[in-house]
Specification:
The chain is of the alpha+beta class. It contains 12 helices and 9 strands. The chain has 2 domains: 3-94, no CATH class; 100-288, Alpha-Beta Complex (Phosphoenolpyruvate Carboxykinase, domain 3), CATH 3.90.228.10. It has helices at 3-21, 23-37, 42-45, 60-68, 73-78, 85-94, 110-116, 136-146, 163-169, 191-195, 268-288, 290-295; strands at 100-105, 128-134, 151-158, 185-188, 201-202, 212-222, 228-230, 242-245, 251-260. Strands 1, 2, 3, 5, 6 and 9 form a 6-stranded antiparallel β-sheet that branches. Helix 1 packs across helix 2 (23-37) and helix 1 crosses helix 6 (85-94). It starts with a helix and ends with a helix.
């Protein structure tokens, strides 16, 4: 057996092991990568990318064409010896766990997650829960910042296309459109608030977790006012239940909550809640505006 054959055998064994270990976690990783790859913002959100598609610039079109030809993961697992070596290489890259790993959690785990954020009452349950574990290097950076401070848990909502970059590089201020209460990454201890910022994204490939998805990150943040502003004192303009992180390294993702968009689901009451929160935010912004203070 020559070196190339040995490499192929190892590649097959590695991919098979990861798919058998947690195929739904692998499917999510591929789905968020594909969402970034098909996004109109792909030059900023589709990072990192496989080295084979990078020459002077990233060849997104070739990468997309190649990725579309990869079968669904259930078929890959059933016929793992028949897919091409290039397909195995890309799949192994996409599900690589050196930066972070995902582990599926049962839906019964949701009350535990929601209580971390201080929510005791029932709220909108996700269809899938994934625990995120970062590499020792990333975890140590967070531990160093949290050494002399308590931590707090909160949700962060964003479009699925952003999560390929977010899971690899952390929450990034430049991806945020909201700056109503200052620059930074916005989080909230109220899940339904963050769902408003997590738009439904349509995945244009066959997958296991669904084609129309919302994603919410459950984050742990260092409770230091210099890095994370909280709306629980009169010293800040940040509303209650909100957090604004100005230091991205002071926030780390612990869980991903995935919602399948099903037209059969009853989202009416959810949107009423969202509308009410929007009115509250508008009132707060108006109250804090210079025009309001000057005239009233």
């Amino acid at each position: 057996m020559n070196a190339r054959e040995i490499s192929d055998v190892e590649s097959v064994a590695k991919l098979k092991d990861r798919l058998q270990k947690d195929i739904y976690a692998c499917d999510l990783r591929l789905s968020i990568f594909f969402a970034a790859l098909t996004s109109y913002k792909r030059s900023s959100v589709c990072r990192p990318v496989p080295a084979k598609f990078v020459k002077e610039e990233v060849d997104y079109d070739s990468m997309l064409k190649f990725f579309k030809n990869i079968p669904p993961l259930t078929e890959v697992l059933e016929n793992i010896d028949t897919i091409t070596s290039d397909q195995r290489e890309l799949l192994n890259w996409a599900v690589d766990e050196r930066q972070y790993s995902l582990q599926s959690r049962p839906s019964s785990f949701f009350p535990t997650v929601s209580m971390l954020c201080g929510q005791i009452q029932s709220t909108i349950k996700p269809d899938f829960i994934f625990e995120v574990t970062y590499s020792p290097i990333v975890q140590q950076k967070f531990n160093n910042l949290a050494r002399d401070h308590p931590t707090v848990f909160a949700y962060h909502g964003s479009s699925l296309e952003n999560f390929h970059s977010i899971t690899h590089y952390g929450l990034q201020n430049h991806l945020n459109k909201t700056s109503l209460f200052g620059e930074g990454t916005y989080l909230s201890t109220e899940l339904h608030v963050c769902l408003n910022f997590s738009s439904v994204f349509h995945i244009l490939r066959e997958n296991l977790i669904g084609k129309r998805l919302r994603c919410i990150a459950v984050c742990e943040a260092v409770d230091n006012h210099a890095w994370v502003k909280r709306g629980e004192t009169n010293k800040t303009k940040v509303p209650e239940k909100y957090l604004v992180a100005t230091n991205n390294e002071a926030v780390i993702i612990r869980y991903l909550l995935i919602y399948k968009y099903d037209k059969g689901k009853k989202w009416g009451s959810f949107w009423l809640i969202i509308f009410g929160y929007c009115l509250i935010l508008l009132a707060i912004a108006l109250y804090n505006s210079s025009i309001f203070k000057r005239n009233f």
